[in-house]
């Protein structure tokens, strides 16, 4: 199994610099399905978009972020190995719609927008989508994939969610206030 | 001379119990299992972490279409990439449905059968159930009453281990319990308000076949207490939940009297008219296609309700031209299941500062039947129970607004609690609901395909309509918000995986297949103790009842062998 350290090292190598792991760079954060190999499903522009929004939705904080955990790469595998033709087409269409909307809102190429602009643009788009009924753009589903993929990773599960493999006991009422 | 004292066909829930009881009585027992061997150390996948299963542990969508359209369509919640080997491939094990009908035949062919994939809720039947048919004049009367089976419930429960609470409810007799999984605060609130608003209704901890205070006997079989991982559908290396693979088969094996043969698909049972006895079981090897037969003094059919009926129907002779012990023409008929498709979900606030520790297995609450308890006061017959539970909304699969740190950390906050309840209703027996042999289609081993013809009656529709309204009313009474209840849509017959009734017991050989010992009326050394014997379905999960009847019948059969009667 690849350790988190190896993932981070691989990411840095594959995208050319540590700064790309944050949302502050102007360069799109492209990651691959397997570190060091090309994406199998996503095009370069799709991977750029997915990497950018993954990083903005689940950034690195005190715990790993979506890029630390190679969420775009995980999703590349999901689309390549799990999705059928219909799901692939619908996912690709959703990415196209999201990209168009974000480019429009950002006043240019969202994936190369500054960190502030990118964050503001996605936050506004996210709020608008969740204010409406349904999921016309497909953004909610894409966000769901990002979220589920992240929390299924070692860093997301262990460090962020504090997932315990063997709880050993049941406590139905844990006060967290 | 017979090869064995007893042959048990099937190694699942009831077959394991039959084998254990027979072997512990000193009989040499052969268990025939149609599927391959499951070796827990090799085949259980319960210790996989989330990141060790690719694709969110989802089975590829094209693979579902090709191999699992029925299985996955029926229990998508249980079939994952890592445990798909527990479920049959529909294209390898096909069946047919009569025009205009649909049936979910959901299966696992391997050591332990479906006992390693079940959801583990266990409830006793009561005389409300055993007397329902005779009081209503429906179908035939059960040939036994609660008092006949109660000691066997107790024996089985002591062995398998059940987490639950004594409630003193006449319609749902208490079992032998180990400590229950305590209700969450939201469930306690639901219980308090529902029981106040509807005094005839009770909300109790679900009764589940998990060890919470393992006995010495259970520990001697390598079993230990539940580790609260909720990985049960992937096997359990702690052997904390009951399955025949975890408990009854090892218990039988340690007697030194058990022989197990895998990949043995039973094609028929040989009958000797001269002695009026079944003498042997004919099988075809699933891998080599070799045909063999094994002989025994007594044969227990525990192949599951549908498969046992199929084996009887395939076992034709001059004496039984319509299938073994089928003079009554009841074999394959009266096929029942439970019916769901009504329920409600809502949000409960006031507990936003509360979380749980541990992942409680198999639901949390049970609402025992409350309809028609004291006579007929509903526009439908019989009744239903609800299964349900609660959990913090928390991580909603990314379906909450926001990005960045706030979104990320929101997943750690409990948020409002989501409460859900879903009905399990009784299905009335109907001789027209049946499984039969397809006239021309065969499987790869040359066995006739099962042909299902099962539909619901108005009673099930009326019952579920009321269950839906009741579910909403209970959540309203509890102060839930955002309550939603989809339009009632009955689950397909078979979908609850509680199939039963295809060789019912009764007093009259003209209208039933088995007597009150689950012994064939016409052939004294043939017993059937899977769900086939059920005369009515009640609304409680039936596995416990199958096991209690199996233990009782096996003890009786052993008595007969000891006495030289068989």
Structure write-up:
The complex is a heterodimer of chains A (about 180) and B (about 575). Chain A has helices at about 5-15, 45-55, 70-80, 85-105, 115-130, 140-150, 155-160, and one strand at about 170-175. Chain A has about 180 residues and is mostly helical. Chain A has one domain. Residues about 1-30 of chain A have low confidence and may be disordered. By secondary structure, chain B is an alpha/beta fold. Chain B folds into two domains: about 1-55 and about 95-165 and about 240-335 and about 430-455 and about 495-565, FAD/NAD(P)-binding domain (3-Layer(bba) Sandwich); about 165-205 and about 340-425 and about 455-490. In chain B, helix 1 (about 15-25) links the parallel strand 1 and strand 2. The longest helix of chain B has 20 residues, at about 460-475. The radius of gyration of chain B is 23 Å and the shape is globular. The two termini of chain B are about 15 Å apart. The chains are: A mainly alpha (about 180), B alpha/beta (about 575). Chains A and B meet through helix 3, helix 5, helix 6, helix 7 and strand 1 of A and helix 3, strand 11 and helix 12 of B.
């Amino acid at each position: 199994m690849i350790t988190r350290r190896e993932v981070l090292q691989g990411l840095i190598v594959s995208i050319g610099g540590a700064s790309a792991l944050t949302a502050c760079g102007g360069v799109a954060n492209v990651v691959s399905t397997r570190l060091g190999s090309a994406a199998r499903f996503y095009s370069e522009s799709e991977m750029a978009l997915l990497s950018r929004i993954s990083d903005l939705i689940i950034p690195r904080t005190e715990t790993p972020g979506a890029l630390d955990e190679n969420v775009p790469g995980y999703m590349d595998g999901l689309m390549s190995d799990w999705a059928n033709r219909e799901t692939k087409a619908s996912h690709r269409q959703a990415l196209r719609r999201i990209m168009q909307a974000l480019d429009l809102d950002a006043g240019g190429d969202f994936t190369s927008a500054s960190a502030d602009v990118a964050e503001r643009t996605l936050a506004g788009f996210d709020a608008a989508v969740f204010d409406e009924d349904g999921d016309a753009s497909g953004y909610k589903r894409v966000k769901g994939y990002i979220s589920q993929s992240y929390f299924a990773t070692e860093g997301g599960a262990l460090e962020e969610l504090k997932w315990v493999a063997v709880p050993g006991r049941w406590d139905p009422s844990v006060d967290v206030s | 001379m017979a090869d064995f004292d007893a042959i048990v066909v099937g190694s699942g829930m009831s077959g394991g119990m039959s084998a254990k009881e027979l072997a512990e009585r000193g009989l040499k027992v052969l268990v025939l299992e149609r599927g391959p061997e499951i070796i827990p150390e090799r085949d259980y996948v319960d210790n996989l972490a989330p990141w060790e299963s690719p694709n969110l542990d989802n089975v590829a969508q094209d693979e579902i279409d090709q191999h699992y359209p029925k299985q996955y369509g029926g229990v998508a919640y249980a079939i994952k990439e890592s445990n798909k080997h527990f479920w049959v491939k529909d294209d390898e094990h096909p069946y047919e449905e009569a025009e205009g009908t649909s049936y979910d035949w959901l299966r696992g062919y391997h050591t332990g059968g479906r006992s390693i994939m079940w959801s583990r809720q266990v409830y006793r039947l009561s005389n409300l159930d055993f007397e329902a048919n005779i009081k209503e004049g429906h179908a035939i009367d059960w040939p036994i009453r609660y008092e006949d089976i109660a000691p066997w419930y107790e024996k089985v429960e002591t062995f398998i281990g059940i987490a639950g609470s004594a409630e003193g409810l006449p319609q749902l007799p208490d079992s032998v319990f180990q400590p229950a999984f305590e209700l969450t605060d939201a469930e306690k609130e639901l219980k308090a308000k529902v029981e106040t608003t509807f005094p005839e209704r009770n909300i109790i901890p679900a009764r589940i076949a998990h060890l919470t205070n393992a006995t010495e006997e259970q520990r001697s079989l390598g079993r230990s207490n539940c580790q609260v991982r909720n990985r049960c559908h992937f096997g359990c290396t702690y052997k904390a939940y009951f399955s025949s693979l975890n408990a009854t088969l090892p218990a039988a094996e340690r007697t030194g009297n058990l022989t197990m043969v895998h990949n043995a698909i039973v094609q028929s049972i040989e009958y000797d008219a001269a002695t009026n006895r079944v003498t042997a079981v004919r099988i075809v090897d699933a891998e080599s296609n070799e045909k063999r037969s094994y002989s025994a003094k007594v044969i227990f059919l525990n192949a599951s309700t549908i498969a046992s009926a199929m084996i009887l129907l395939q076992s034709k002779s001059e004496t039984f031209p319509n299938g073994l012990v089928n003079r009554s023409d009841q074999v394959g008929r009266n096929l029942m299941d439970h019916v769901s498709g009504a329920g409600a979900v809502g949000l409960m606030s006031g507990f936003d500062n509360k979380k749980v520790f541990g992942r409680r297995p198999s639901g949390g609450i049970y609402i025992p039947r409350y309809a028609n308890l004291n006579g007929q006061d509903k526009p439908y017959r019989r009744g239903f129970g609800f299964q349900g539970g609660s959990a913090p909304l928390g991580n909603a699969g990314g379906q909450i607004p926001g990005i960045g740190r706030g979104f990320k950390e929101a997943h750690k906050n409990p948020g409002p609690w989501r409460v859900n309840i879903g009905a399990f209703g009784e299905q009335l027996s109907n001789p027209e609901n049946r499984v039969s042999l397809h006239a021309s289609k065969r499987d790869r081993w040359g066995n006739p395909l099962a042909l299902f013809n099962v539909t619901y009656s108005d009673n099930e529709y009326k019952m579920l309509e009321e269950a839906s309204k009741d579910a909403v009313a209970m959540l309203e009474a509890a102060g839930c918000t955002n309550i939603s209840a989809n339009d009632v849509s009955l689950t397909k017959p078979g979908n609850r995986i509680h199939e039963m009734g295809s060789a019912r017991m009764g007093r009259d050989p003209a209208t039933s297949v088995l007597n009150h010992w689950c012994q064939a009326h016409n052939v004294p050394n043939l017993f059937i103790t899977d769900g086939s014997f059920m005369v009515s379905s009640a609304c409680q999960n039936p596995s416990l009842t199958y096991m209690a009847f199996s233990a009782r019948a096996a003890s009786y059969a052993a008595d007969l062998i000891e006495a030289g009667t068989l």
